[in-house]
Amino acid sequence: MSIHRLEHTQIIPAGLETCWTFFSDPRNLSKITPAELDFKILTELPGQMHAGLKIEYRVRPLLGIPMRWVSEITEVEPLQSFADEQLKGPYRTWCHRHEFRALDADHTEMRDLIDYSLWLGPLGDLAHLLVVRRQLKHIFDYRTAAVERIFGPA
After folding, report:
1. How many CB atoms lie within 10 A of CB 100?
2. Could you tell me the end-to-end alpha-carbon distance of the chain, in angstroms, rounded to an integer?
């Protein structure tokens, strides 16, 4: 089983508190997810994210087949970072850390670090090379464009 890493950094033309408020609200995830994934949150969410919060989604990551994805918020450091881990879903493991850093009063650096692995050993690694890596790049390219539509270009 190979562990893969995706790193993505984006400069957002908004202050740290504004960015934190938007990205730490799981309800906003659907605003920055490609429509073809048919992403839907199934969990009733509290007003504020906290460690231990479990969130259930429905997503169609491959061939339009619906899949349940359950994640848990494992760490929250307000205005700095939060992390989530997949409990059930398409990956064998999925750990996603979101980091925020004020560059000045009106610009924030957002960094995503995702460590993940796939099922099926060598076949999963082949699927990563042929499909998964490209799909994740597409999702984060879409997310970059969606964030620019919401906040404006850096």
Report:
1. 21
2. 38
- Dump pLDDT digits (tens) for 56-80: 999 988 777 899 999 999 999 999 9
DSSP readout, 125-151?
A: HHHIIIIIHHHHHHHHHHHHHHHHHHH
Q: Give the Cβ contact number of residue 51 at 10 Å.
A: 12
Token look-up 């429905």 returns 58
Q: Identify the structural domains of the chain with CATH numbers, from first to last.
A: 4-151 (3.30.530.20)
HSE, CB side, 13 Å, CA atoms: give it for residue 81: 11
* Phi–psi pair at 15, nearest 5 degrees: -70, 160
Q: Which amino acid, residue 114?
A: I
Among 57-61, 82-86, 147-151, whose mean pLDDT is lowest?
Answer: 57-61
3-state secondary structure of 46: coil
Kind and range of the H or E element at 9? strand 4-12
130-138: Cβ within 8 A, 24+ apart? 131/62, 133/4, 135/61, 136/6, 138/34
Q: Which helix (H) or strand (E) is 123 found in, with range?
A: helix 121-127
